[in-house]
Automatic annotation (TrEMBL):
Top-level division of the source organism's lineage: Bacteria
Pfam short name (any one): Amino_oxidase
Domain Amine oxidase: 16-155
Official protein name in the record: FAD-dependent oxidoreductase
Transmembrane annotation, as ranges: none
Molecular function in Gene Ontology: oxidoreductase activity
InterPro entries: Amino_oxidase, FAD/NAD-bd_sf, Flavin_MAO
Protein family: Belongs to the flavin monoamine oxidase family.
Length: 168
């Protein structure tokens, strides 16, 4: 016979958003369950260890001083960060080939697509209220579309350009 447990909140996904929500609910003593489709928590935040024991971040890795909420979580959980650098050469992995280049190593049409798409993204991001994104004028519209749909709208079809935006 299956047993049922009643909870006040169901959180879908154990990525950072879901885990942070669970953390807040726990503090408020509100009952919840977190449902995760994968066999691990963390979502896009994911690290692996190489054979020689080096940890490599496959997802989120950089935190800036402006990332107030994640910085708060770091201090709450007493986690340490390591410094990184912003200056230096950009290294691209193009089909397994290492390319060092000041600009993305794309053909002219690829660079044009990348420029158009990043211009559009920068324009859209300026309309978003960072403190309450859901209150922004077009919040519903942007929340209801995927990155792929946005790229199609800006006519960004070059695979290299999509790959670079996808990674960012
Ligand atoms: C390569 C890469 C590098 C990045 N670098 C940075 C960085 O340097 N700095 C930074 O701040 N951010 C970075 N990001 C972005 C950051 O990882 C994400 O913004 C953040 O992890 C999103 O968290 P989330 O909880 O909203 O979503 P996710 O991490 O995507 O979590 C969603 C979870 O929900 C689960 N799920 C989805 N649907 C269902 C369902 N129907 N039922 C059950 N479970 C479901 C998924 O399996 C997943 O575990 C990077 C992302 C990638 C991929």
């Amino acid at each position: 016979m299956s047993s049922y447990q009643e909870v006040e909140v169901v959180i879908i996904g154990a990525g950072f958003a879901g885990l942070a929500a669970a953390f807040e609910l726990k503090k408020q003593n509100i009952s919840f369950v977190v449902l995760e489709a994968r066999n691990r928590p963390g979502g896009r935040v994911y690290s692996i260890k190489t054979a020689d024991g080096v940890t490599i971040d496959m997802g989120a890795q950089w935190i800036d001083k402006d990332h107030h909420r994640i910085n708060k979580l770091l201090s709450q959980f007493k986690l340490k960060t390591v410094s990184t650098f912003k200056k230096g050469k950009d290294i691209y992995n193009i089909n397994g080939k290492k390319v060092i280049s000041k600009k993305p190593p794309l053909s002219a049409p690829g660079l044009l697509d990348l420029f158009q798409a990043t211009t559009k993204l920068n324009k859209v991001s300026k309309q978003i209220n960072l403190n309450a994104p859901w209150c922004s004028l077009e919040a519903k519209k942007y929340d209801g579309q995927t990155m792929e749909q946005l790229l199609i709208k800006t006519r960004c079809i070059h695979q290299g350009a999509i790959g670079i935006i996808d990674f960012c």
